[in-house]
Design a protein that fits this description.
By secondary structure, the protein is mainly α. It is built from six helices and five strands; from the N terminus they run αββββαβαααα. The radius of gyration is 18 Å and the shape is globular.
């Protein structure tokens, strides 16, 4: 079973939670993290992973309590509002990882000559930078969807200062962001 991420997030926005394993609606689902590839199909934010079913990255999984028990997924019950916050925080974690990569971690992937040490990823590996930019834009668009949903629910944005810090760090690196100036 492949999860339709758009449908899954729209259901959360409608306060309707459906277990991706059994297809039943519940008032809450178990939210947990797993690296087990057998659970990849239940990780809606993991939908476009290039490693597919073999991926062992840490993924956010949501299942009903019965399915979570059968799949041995540890986690906590969460209603739609709590899941929305969990997804937003997970998205932020991915954005921070993307920022860390373009800021400095990319250097570990390349053998740089001494004269190239001061260059950015966009200079050293334009195609890799283009891929990273597309990934970050996708994450930023996802983040903005959560942000708008919090506003429409008249709920406080969790850790609201995070956004401005992220924007400032990207601008300091000379990069643009969809999250503002």
């Amino acid at each position: 079973m492949q999860i339709n991420w758009e449908e899954a997030i729209n259901q959360i926005f409608e306060d309707r939670l459906t277990c991706p394993r059994c297809g039943t609606d519940y008032p809450s689902l178990v939210v947990g993290y797993s690296r087990r590839p057998t659970l990849n199909k239940f990780a809606p934010r993991h939908q476009d992973c290039p490693r597919g079913d073999e991926c062992e990255a840490r993924k956010l999984i949501t299942l009903c309590s019965d399915c979570a028990a059968e799949e041995r997924l540890p986690g906590n019950d969460a209603d739609a509002d709590q899941m929305l916050e969990t997804y937003m925080l997970d998205c932020r974690r991915d954005l921070e990882d993307a920022l860390d990569y373009v800021a400095d971690l990319w250097r570990d992937d390349f053998e740089l000559e001494t004269e190239n040490l001061g260059q950015g990823l966009h200079d050293v590996a334009p195609e890799v930078f283009k891929d990273e930019l597309a990934w970050r834009e996708r994450l930023e668009t996802e983040y903005l969807r959560y942000h708008r949903e919090f506003r429409s629910r008249a709920r406080r944005i969790p850790h609201a200062g995070w956004r401005s810090e992220y924007v400032e760090e990207l601008h300091a690196l000379g990069y643009e962001t969809l999250l503002g100036d």
